[in-house]
Write a structure and sequence with these properties.
single chain; about 325 residues; TIM Barrel; 8-stranded parallel barrel; 11 helices; 8 strands; about 15% strand
């Protein structure tokens, strides 16, 4: 079995695809009831695991068609202690769920990885609180809190961990420190409001620079997720050192704000072709970005459109 923990292939160049909005796909397209937006509960049954396999296979096929690598993020965004407690999971059951997520990703990698197209398994971490509200955790508290989940990943075959939809700098610092303690490469993905800033008002520049300063630059890279490109494109300072630390984009399909999305009872899938073209413009100006995928409201159609638009840009770079 491949292991990339000591040398992440996405740091060496090339394009890596990942999936779209898993939770919104299962809820709005498949009609599933996901308590607290938690996909990791699907790992407990064979039917759930088969649904997850079918979900990932669509994206793996897109990557194969474009000759790209792939980042397999586990379905564990909600699999941390506070959210798990709401679902009745014990500490032991939560550990088993996180490990089960990695095992499923290993199964998919064994079936789909080909020479020249590495598949990286990343343990997905979500915020302790709501990804649409300000995270107020201090770094030390966040380090202690997220260590439990990161330890589960460190004791599995995961290659790295990625923290998604973070709104607080303290939580980002804590995740990065915990990952270092457990010997795991990490990526930190922030989300922003429609003004391109974190919900508390901090800029992306502050978030990345402060996290790097507090951790000795330990995150392998940063990402932006759960925001439409129109929300953050103007906030990016092309060519600046902090912007060059951003290696991945997982945008929302919708231009709606987080508050609007939170209240919406229908799915705004946006325009896949337009989203792809917006990625194309961003990648022209940001050569360091090599991981592309989607977030809320996106599905395989959006990721396919992103790849169609962006692969020529990377091929000519």
């Amino acid at each position: 079995m491949a292991s990339y923990r000591d040398a992440l292939p996405q740091l060496a160049g090339g394009v890596f695809v990942t999936d779209g909005g898993m939770e919104t796909t299962f809820i709005f397209h498949d009609g599933l009831q996901l308590p607290h937006f938690a996909c990791f509960v699907m790992l407990a049954s064979e039917d759930g695991r088969e649904r997850l396999r079918a979900y990932y296979r669509r994206y793996l096929d897109i990557a194969r068609r474009h000759g790209a690598g792939f980042i397999l993020d586990t379905p564990t965004w909600r699999a941390n202690p506070d959210w798990a407690a709401k679902l009745g999971y014990t500490t032991e059951a939560l550990d088993m769920a996180n490990v089960a997520g990695v095992k499923l990703m290993c199964e998919l990698r064994d079936r789909h990885e080909e020479p020249g197209r590495p598949i990286v398994i990343s343990g997905a971490i979500g915020p302790r609180g709501d990804g649409y509200k300000e995270g107020r955790m201090e770094a030390g508290e966040a380090e202690d809190y997220h260590s439990e989940q990161i330890s589960s990943f460190a004791n599995s075959d995961a290659d790295m961990v990625t923290a998604f939809t973070l709104t607080g700098i303290g939580e980002a610092i804590g995740v990065a420190r915990a990952a270092t303690t457990h010997g795991m490469p990490s990526a930190i993905s922030f989300t922003v409001e429609t003004d391109g800033r974190l919900v508390g008002g901090r800029s992306l520049r502050e978030a990345i620079e402060m996290t790097d300063e507090a951790t000795g630059g330990s995150p392998a890279y940063y990402m932006i997720n759960c925001a439409h490109p129109t929300h953050f494109s103007e906030a990016l300072e092309r060519g600046e050192g902090w912007t060059k630390r951003i290696a991945g984009l997982r945008a929302n399909a919708s231009r709606m704000s987080h508050a609007e999305l939170d209240e919406s009872e229908t799915l705004d899938a946006g325009d896949p072709v337009d989203l792809g073209q917006r990625y194309r413009v961003l990648l022209r100006d940001m050569p360091e970005v090599r991981i592309v995928g989607g977030c809320c409201g996106t599905d395989h159609r959006h990721v396919a459109a992103i790849c169609e638009a962006c692969m020529p840009v990377r091929a000519s770079a």
